Amino acid sequence: MKIQSFGAAKTVTGSCHIVQKNGVKVMIDCGLFQGKDEENKNSELGFNPAEIDYVILTHAHLDHCGRIPMLIKGGFKGKIYCTKPTFQLARLIMLDTAKIMLEDYKHNLKRRLRYNPKKIIKENLSNSNKSNSAHIKNETHQNKHHNIHNTHNTNESGKNESNTNTELLYNEIDVFESLDHFNPILAYNTPFVIDEKHNIAVEIQDAGHILGSSFIKLMFGDSSIIFSGDLGNKNKPIVNNFSYPDEADAVYIETTYGDRLHKSFDDSKTELFNIIETTFKNGGNVLIPSYAMERTQDILYILKGFYKNGKLPKCKIFLDSPLAINITDIFLRNPEYFREDELQLFQKDNPFEIPYLIETREVEESKEINKFTEGAIIIAGSGMLTGGRMLHHLKHNLWRKENSIIFIGYQARGTLGRRIVEGDKTIKVFGEHIDVNASVHTINGFSSHADQNELIEWLSALKNRAETKIYLIHGDEDKMTIFKEKITHLGFNAYIPSYAEDIELGN
Which of 449, 448, 452, 450 is nearest to 483 (CA)? Predict the structure, then answer.
């Protein structure tokens, strides 16, 4: 058995792993790279999609599903297996990404035309001469879609946009074509044969990360390998705690927070409330850049709890994300994936519904939010500030010392969120320099990733620790090194694979 990692190898994003045995190739995830240091990897998959027989998707985060449409464009003909919520959520995530690519390309093209119109026209004429009329129509449509990460990160950092990669990853048509390949029939704790001829089966268990997330045990006859996907932070609302692995020949485990421990969820809730209360007393607004999936729903749930307990000051809560609004609807349609204790509450009351909450779908509604100079909680994407409506709210709020910005999730290297967290005093948004005068807070207890102790707890459930090879993925290399040293002292045999490195396992 041979395994290669074409993403999440010595880095956090771009999860993509191929397992090969007896001429059959099974891929685990196919996600986008995020952050300016990694985004250039998105345009090249590093493998031939036509050679992949099956794909198993652990969950619907962009860094795990975001390159799936590129597989179909490259000739993939097989099935993509996952849970029902993962399919529903991935559909929204991929379509939203294609839509943002369109918006980015329009914006970037205008800037390029202003700087060098003759060159752009010449490039377009050259492309046209190589194409027939039908291809030109397709190319025109595709040229509206640009790499979301390239454009947003370049604009924010103030780099020269002439260096921006203008090749398009995919468009909405490619997303719809990829949806035909999904087979969302996997269920927890239920083995499923994906290839009877070659005796290949898969069994998933709850990863406790987001709605419908799973970790995967892939079995080629008597050989087996476990991929953790992303493991969840325990004792959070809505989703269950992660389940535990049994045994395998090898385990690929994420290490996003392999170097640290999280605050408790209760302590994090208290910290959030104190920031809100202090900010409102100072006459300011609270900005929460949030991932549309899971983190936004967690925050709404927490705010609803503050309201029910009579603690939440009277305010405006703006959920300024059409994607997050749609994802919340999907949550409500999949109650069987909730924690059992939460399910009882869901049946009595919508935990995301707050009298102070205002959902804004339209752009004009979003613009109106910036008329509120105090007493507002603004929740908008993106979680790492790689794009989305929160950038506009930064422009209007970040320079005011009365305001607060709260980061509630991991900030990848090279993202605007990471630079603010690390103390940049001035940032560039839409070509304008903005001073960072608002107070900056990071609350990692809301993370949907397991911390160091939880990762060790999960690994420690393995029955054959001494015989199992542990491969560390999905983390910054320095964090992986710390985690490797930690678990080596506990008797685990750990290794950190490099990008596309051939890992040979057994026969």
Answer: 452
Q: How many CB atoms lie within 10 A of CB 49?
A: 20
Q: Which fold has domain 265-446?
A: Rossmann fold (3.40.50)
Strand partners, 405: 287, 440
pLDDT, residue 213, reads: 98
Residue 223 has φ and ψ, to the nearest 5°, of -90, 145
CB 476 within 8 A of CB 442: no
Give Cα separations from 33 to 42, 46, 173, 257 (angstroms).
6, 13, 21, 18
Q: Is the pLDDT of residue 310 over 90?
A: yes
pLDDT category of residue 124 using cuts at 50, 70 and 90: low
Handedness of CA 342, 347, 352, 357 (dihedral sign): negative
> Edge-to-edge, what's the strand order for the sheet holding 192-195?
192-195, 200-206, 214-220, 223-227, 250-254, 469-473, 493-495
Measure the CA–CA gap between 389 and 426, rounded to whole angstroms: 19
Antiparallel, parallel or unpaired: β 16-21 and 24-30: antiparallel
List the one residue out of 59, 81, 399, 77 whose CA is nearest residue 214. 59
pLDDT band at residue 468 under the 50/70/90 scheme = very high
pLDDT surpasses 90 at 119: no
Phi/psi of residue 215, each to 5°? -110, 155
Using the structure block, give the residue that is written with the tokens 């899971």.
294
CATH 3.60.15.10 fits 2-93+177-260+448-504, yes or no: yes
Q: What percent of the chain has pLDDT over 70?
A: 89
Sign of CA pseudo-dihedral 73, 74, 75, 78: negative
Cβ-count burial of 165 within 10 angstroms (0-12 exposed, 13-18 middle, 19+ buried)?
middle
Name residue 481's amino acid.
Answer: T
H or E, element range at 206: strand 200-206
3-state secondary structure of 384: coil
pLDDT value of residue 195: 97
Instruction: Please give the Cα distance from 403 to 437 (Å, whole number).
Output: 8
Residue span(s) of the chain under CATH 3.60.15.10 come to 2-93+177-260+448-504
Continuous segment of H or E residues that includes residue 452: helix 452-459
* DSSP for residue 288: E
Q: 321 is written with which tokens?
A: 């994300």
| Distance in angstroms (rounded) separating the CA atoms of residues 402 and 3 | 52
Q: Which residues contact 307 (CB under 8 A, 6 or more apart)?
A: 354, 355, 356
Distance CA 244, CA 155 (A): 43
Intervals of CATH 3.40.50.10890 along the chain? 265-446
Predicted pLDDT of residue 348: 76
